[in-house]
Amino acid sequence: MDSNGTEVRQFQPERAQFRDEVLSGLRKTPKELPTKYLYDARGSQLYERICALDEYYPPRTEIAIMKAHIADIVARLGPNTRLIEYGCGNCAKTHILLDSLPDISSYIPIDISIEQLRHVARELTSHYPGLPLSPVCADYTGDFELPPPGRPGERTAVYFPGSTIGNFGPEAARDFLRHIAATCGPGGALLIGVDLKKDPDVLHRAYNDREGVTAAFNLNLLARINRELDGDFDLDAFRHYAFYNPTEGRIEMHLVSLREQTAYVGDASVPFARGESIWTESSYKFSLEGFAALAQSAGFRVDRVWTDERPWFSVQYLVNAA
Ligand code: AVI
């Protein structure tokens, strides 16, 4: 139970799982680390700072689209909705929905960071007294239980903003959307933020900001391994490297070893050649047609797409096609 009386259900990964996934990723060729581990308390703070950067256009573009079309969005969601949010972060965009959605039956924010969820639960309870709130701390790509449905006749809608779907590979994205379609059930819906293909220079700037916040966010993964898994990565011996791969339609984020070196995770050694990289994140960018095909392969039909004028970003309303 949290200090404000809101129960936070917890299913977050254990330290042993973190260690196993880190070591198995670092033993692969090429080396990789699971993206989800970027988001400890420090990583979540750094991600919030990224979201406020001039160069990182997605959050403010998505918020502008949501605000411009909130009446239409809310009309589609309708009353008596059980709203589930995957990866709620600081819930910055959720306020736009909660301010306008009538008669919500429950709001279930899910996040991997317990600190983030506690903060969000406190904030939401004071801002929306009486909002039926059931936070869940979990890696939402894994197994966990949702609180049982509440009111009769309610409809389940999943909110998945921020184009986090772009952080999944194509197959994982389809499987995850299928899982969401099953969670929504027949008649359910998914409101999702989807980042679009654009001039690679814009993308390059967004993931290589002048202040170096994205670099700090990426390097924090090694700092986290040092803190939590008794690692000894020398952060000065790795460099953030992010670029747009137009063939794959994705930003790739890497940490490149600046010299030949051996790092330790506890007593396990990890050798690096000079110039060798650890792949920490992919961020896929979509065409509207490409995303519609992906949604359809997962059992959704695209009901409505809203974009900004350029168009750089989209908010899409998908309905379970079953
Ligand atoms: C959370 N996710 C959608 C962000 C993205 O753009 O892929 C994470 C991020 N990585 C670097 N900057 C932002």
Q: Tell me, what's the shape? A: globular
Contiguous uncertain segments of 5+ residues: none
Estimate the strand proportion: 25-35%
Number of helices: 10
Backbone CA Rg: 20 Å
Helix content: 25-40%
Largest sheet: 8 strands, mixed
Instruction: Kindly name the structural category.
Output: alpha/beta
Write out the distinct hetero groups bound to the structure: N,N-dimethyl-L-histidine
Widest sheet: strand ordering: 1-5-4-3-6-7-14-13
Give the N-to-C terminal Cα separation.
38 Å
Give the oligomeric state. single chain
Can you write the helix and strand succession as a string? EHEHHHEHEHEEHEHHEEEEEHEE
The overall strand count is: 14
Q: What number is the mean pLDDT? A: 94
Write the layout of secondary structure elements.
Blueprint: E1 9-11, H1 15-26, E2 31-32, H2 41-51, H3 58-68, H4 70-77, E3 81-86, H5 94-100, E4 106-111, H6 114-127, E5 136-138, E6 155-160, H7 170-184, E7 189-195, H8 200-206, H9 213-229, E8 238-245, E9 250-257, E10 261-265, E11 268-272, E12 277-284, H10 288-297, E13 300-307, E14 313-320
Parallel strand pairs: 1-5, 2-12, 3-4, 3-6, 4-5, 6-7
Antiparallel strand pairs: 7-14, 8-9, 9-12, 10-11, 13-14
